[in-house]
């Protein structure tokens, strides 16, 4: 190699070296110190650890930090606050032992420094970092603990009180820390908070010595004590102590001596065999129990242990032979171990321990193994199994277990305990194909494979204790999750037994497109598109298995049509004869249901519940209806009457109305009786996951557990900790019961243009104004026609109709005193509900109105809602700029008036057209729509026509459908009104509300 090449290679290494340094800096930036605060019996301790910042903002499980080395090396990630903290707590030790904060000067100020780093946590880094809170006044009470001791605590359960140089608290719920103030003198408060747990036999002495403190702050003297005499059982704990030198010989290569320590269990309380106390106290549900030990029975059990196992008391061997440890371990001195003195090389000591443990297990004595025990005593699993048993019609219990040496062991208690470790999944991930030794409640130690264990824990975490009874239960709604879990675990060798119906239902739910084809009856007149037929198949499947679901298709994809097809099938099958279906929807949507039912399912008998006295008689006669239409507002008023009826199906349209589980309307609807339940909504989740829980609590109560359990298992981890695994887990659970198709996904099945009629009902004030104008205008038009004839009454007729149409749009468009104080418009409110949802779906909207004053009102509302827009009206000089901005995607909506933008512009960036007020000449309306639907358009176009129900707008629509030529002649200024219009046609336009000319 030439010298030049050597120089080049050396030069290139500089870049590689620099890259390595940069990478090291990046890794160091992600590394940081954390401070873990803990409090045991009001003694605060601190552990310093290292964590790394993940991409999702979470931190990893902390590892120990060597404080002296940190102060010497001074890595870049240490801040000035870190240096100040480490300098105070540096003990010169290399291990990361808990630091007693009581030993530090100015402890309160030191804690504030810790909190200021925003890396100080209480108990674990999975909690929120601690923040400084306000000084709180704490009310103190004495509480009896499980051992019968009285402990001074804050009356607020979420506060932990402790003392440094001043009284302080930790609010564990809100992760806050601060100072405590009470009416007690500070020194007295500090002294009280430092009180140890007070046993019942010292309470009298405390009262005598602290008589000057005040009776309100002294512990309660308990006189009612229940004395118990119980029989003990024996519990053995196997452990090991390192650093043993026995007779000058190493016991093992690591100098570890194995031993067993004995405990006696009275009821559920463990007592160390070396404890000299002959009785002890326990608090049982507020009753103080004094339990007396049976010393004779304990002595008998110890004799049985030595006789059955050959274990020798350590103290006896210690007295005869020279044996020492690196420290005097009193527990070891009072324990039992194996000394094979005939074989001083100890070659068979491990085999002897195996025999000893087998004898202990044969006697069915409980034995637990500490991590320090030096020998492997774990069993291997012979078989993993799961068993499903039916509890009720809808619920099944699942038992998870293993078989070891012919014995079956229940896995659920073990899995439940593991889930308390917030880092268990992270630890199992690191173990890969390794095994984990697990001790079962009966003392059996078994090696469990990490991969299987992780999968089982995932399943149990999703389903465990959703009902608060500690059992693993699944419903038919869990079938899809169970099928997925069953398939995955069978691949790992887990054997499934028992009822297999759930797996079959689950397989069907997972294969949505493979559901049985539902045949729609001929009486249903609409032609379903393929994706709509799939939706009907799904609705029929849900009904067959009594499951609830959310049909969450995009606006305009035909949720109403699919539902009507489903109900038409139910009608044909005779399932609506005994019970009707009830549809609950916003008031503005009811007219659309009425129109769609008449159009596509005219054979269905529809009863509409409206505000007014006549509703009472309708409520008494619901059994004659196929479909009952009501509103969310009316359900609250009619709850008692509706509870008298049973319904085949409850359908909630715009189901987000029950997103608040605490709302009265939600609670009322949840009480209604129905065999099946269905939600229709394009926005099943708007703000938080609690809304989703509320919908599923209506659909299938218990499916997502109680609200408290849902928040614990799903909402808090997902929303607060950004837990991706739990988010995916939740989506897996709910997706079989929520069908959502966007227009992009089903674009191949859509026509080039879909027209949708959006009906709304006028509210009371708006309807009264409409009725007033209708009556006066009808009289004026009638007089004009009587005096001049129909052909010469054109102007008066158009003026009358204009005023009625303005009322339908917004009363503020009318320049009359009667309209000035009416600020509400049903159609305007419907628009303001539609547009934000459409924008969130990514739609590009062109909104047409012939009234520039209406566009001005819409503009004002858009500004309040921070909705970006551009507009073109007659006074717009520069038309190119708003068009260019809209076409370039700078704004999601463009407002256009009829005369300004009805012709001559290209808006192919849009996929949605809204006609706020109908343009009565269909040709003119079509021209406006064609600004979007024209050559160059590559997206399906949705055209929304907004109409006020039971008004001149709906009447003209019906006339357009039945008498298109006649309708055109009414509003075409160049046409001759007398050419086809008759007096009865004019009269029908001015008929009262609720009467529609056909």
Give your account of this protein's structure.
The chain is of the alpha/beta class and about 1000 residues long. It folds into 5 domains: about 170 residues, no CATH class; about 140 residues, no CATH class; about 120 residues, no CATH class; about 220 residues, 3-Layer(aba) Sandwich (Rossmann fold), CATH 3.40.50; about 240 residues, 3-Layer(aba) Sandwich (Rossmann fold). It contains 35 helices and 45 strands. A 7-stranded parallel sheet has the order 35-36-34-37-38-33-39, sandwiched between helices. A 6-stranded parallel sheet has the order 40-45-44-41-43-42, with helices on both faces. A hairpin with a 5-residue loop joins strand 29 and strand 30. Helix 2 packs across helix 3. The termini are far apart. The C terminus is likely disordered.
Quick one: overall form?
Answer: elongated
In the CATH hierarchy, the third-tier topology of the largest domain is known as Rossmann fold
Distance between the termini: 99 Å
Instruction: Please give the domain count.
Output: 5
Looking across the biggest beta sheet, what order are the strands in?
Answer: 35-36-34-37-38-33-39
CATH superfamily of the largest domain: P-loop containing nucleotide triphosphate hydrolases
> Structural class, from secondary structure content?
alpha/beta
Fraction of residues in H or I helices: 25-40%
The whole-angstrom Rg is 39 Å
Low-confidence stretches: 13-28, 247-253, 319-328, 340-345, 963-980, 994-998
